[in-house]
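step: validate -> pass
step: tokenize input -> pass
step: predict -> running
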Amino acid sequence: MNLCEICEEKEAKYSCKLCGRKACEDDFVKEKGICKVCEISLCQICHQHLSLGYCEICGRLICDKCTAYFDGSRRICKECYSKKVSSKIISSVSQA
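step: predict -> pass
step: emit ->
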């Protein structure tokens, strides 16, 4: 019997489509086809990819595809970046 790679107690009946981890029924999210470890690590914007870090502005977990700015240490999500750019455009127009 293959044991769940998360709880290491119950029989693993599923395989996570993101990480390949073998999971039991309790540690698998059937609707998404992923294990519970991946579910808590998902990007909080797209909910499809594993996150790489937190947005410096809003604090949400974000993946590479939802990252608009990254300089090696700071990461900003697409949503916060577009708000920042929009506010700069609006303030520059109102100052003119």
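step: describe -> The chain has a mean pLDDT of 90.
step: cleanup -> pass
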